[in-house]
Design a protein that fits this description.
7-stranded parallel sheet; 3 domains; Helicase, Ruva Protein, domain 3; homodimer; Rossmann fold; 3-stranded antiparallel sheet; 319 residues; CofD (chains A, B); globular; alpha/beta
Chain lengths: 319, 319
């Protein structure tokens, strides 16, 4: 079975680990969000790609869900001692190595997709991880700060400001000119099922879908497209999805996110059991819907969710 | 008193610490060797400048004489796990910060001298540290490896090969086109005394002297120029100076090194007490010479050596 998954960071990575446990022999291609990428200290940092790679490769800090296990922060301390910022982005000593290797390879002329493949050579995530694009896309968030409207990098909004001010708009700068990375459209075209994990629908899955060609390829693939709600009981399972949903005029409910994707893209949608009442509304929108437990408390729970998603995909296929 | 010191790495740095203790109120300008500089992992590393800066700024690993105190090597371990080399150069997590800040500033267009000043803002070494040049000079060593003659970077010869094969030639590549960094010639011109610490006469002091204009400025300064022998009892006090002395046809003795500098440059020379017999030969070469203890066992010993060097300079001045 060939499965394509559009993944953001922590939620996507943890779902993928469940999927690998549920169907260890499946051929999984992950299309990773790169809108969160940021240049820090002259280095190219790809938080979402790395979270997927570290999580599936066994190098993740389990507790926080991002960054490396057994990590130290001496380099960061020293940068602060030099007065060189930003100091709000948590780069650890081990993590720095990934960004240094990536930056060197990019500098040598390799596209990000080739660099990601090289990094995965070490981590052996058990999936094929492809960035959504080799081109530069940077998610900016329009906010009002000190009475002034300005656009900040997504990481500045998310990590530095902790989404403490309303997002007025979310713009994947450069997306319109971006091309899907080599292998992205091919993987979608050859997929038996396409999954949207409980990743952020705006700044993770939404950014991937903003790369021209990807949304269309998924809609035209002719295979079941099934998503899992990142909203449980009107609140994000983790992260601050509600903050950016408001910016695109979508209410923070499991049903509204499904409608936001739309029946032209989505065939099936899983909501949590606490949102069972949303099933009817989602199905009225033309999207097959089931209510199942959606809390990824551990790998087994994530595997259970993956099985439910694949079961719903099968239901769609045979309907 | 204005003192100019031409410094390499460990020997120069330790001597400077002694000099600061001996004459705390002196105005000391250090012209640092940059021929050892190397690009590693896309970062500009300046081992000699950093050794001086860390040693005088209180950040040095006292035992090994280079690198940072309280250091960890997690980033380096990870680079090795990615299969990215070289693995023979000991960059620690804290040390990496210096190279990242430097590389960013160079990338932003600042010359190395301005970058060094900025780094010293943090370390407050108590001296003015200026790289010999803002231009790229790279010391290469010609060796025979596996029956083939090739040129390797100085660090490869020194650190990777541990100077285990004979150096057939030592070439400061780029030196001929290099210009002294801003402030170098001015400092020499305004100096009351110029000192050559017990640094390597070929790859440290020799490289600095290879930048056109520096040797001439020192010779024409009209102030005492006093050096300290890095060779004690026919062997280098530390390091492998003998290996590179052979390449320039100089025997590994305190007297031969003085003659190598020559009376056109050097006015005074200190040899260790075990080399007292060399005094006569050095003085015959037209260089005033004294035999004093030259082992920098601690800061007090280094301070004693500095006092002896300044006393000899005073002797030269009043002679």
């Amino acid at each position: 079975m060939r499965i394509v998954v559009l993944a953001g960071g922590i939620g996507g990575a943890r779902f993928l680990r469940g999927l690998k446990r549920a169907v260890p022999d499946a051929d999984v291609t992950v299309i990773g969000n790169t809108g969160d990428d940021i240049h820090l200290f002259g280095l190219k940092v790809c938080p979402d790609l790395d979270t997927v790679m570290y999580t599936l490769g066994g190098g993740i800090d389990e507790e926080q869900g991002w960054g490396r296990s057994d990590e130290t922060f001496h380099l960061k301390e020293e940068l602060a001692a030099y007065g060189v910022g930003p100091d709000w982005f948590g780069l650890g000593d081990r993590d720095f190595a990934t960004h240094i290797v990536r930056t060197q390879m990019l500098g040598a002329g390799f596209p990000l997709s080739a660099v990601t493949e090289a990094l995965c050579d070490r981590w052996q995530p058990g999936v094929r991880l492809i960035p959504m694009t080799d081109d530069r896309v940077e998610t900016h968030v329009a906010v009002e700060l000190d009475g002034e409207r300005k656009a900040v990098h997504f990481q500045e909004y998310w990590v530095r400001l902790r989404a403490s001010v309303p997002a007025q708009a979310v713009v994947p700068v450069g997306a319109e000119q971006a091309k899907p990375a080599p292998g992205v459209l091919e993987a979608i075209g050859e997929a038996d099922v396409i999954l949207f994990p409980p990743s952020n629908p705006v700044v993770s899955v939404g950014t991937i879908l903003a790369v021209p060609g990807i949304r269309e390829a998924i809609a035209d693939a002719g295979v079941p497209v099934v998503g899992l709600s990142p909203i449980v009981g009107d609140a994000p399972v983790r992260g601050m999805a509600d903050k950016v949903l408001a910016a695109v005029g979508v209410e923070s409910t499991a049903a509204a996110v499904a409608e936001h994707y739309g029946s032209g893209l989505l065939d099936g949608w899983l909501v949590d059991t606490v949102d069972a009442a949303a099933v009817e509304r989602v199905e009225e929108a033309g999207i097959r819907c089931r209510a199942v437990p959606l809390m990824m408390t551990d790998v087994d729970a994530a595997a259970g969710m993956a099985r439910e998603a694949l079961a719903l995909a099968e239901e769609v296929r045979t309907a």
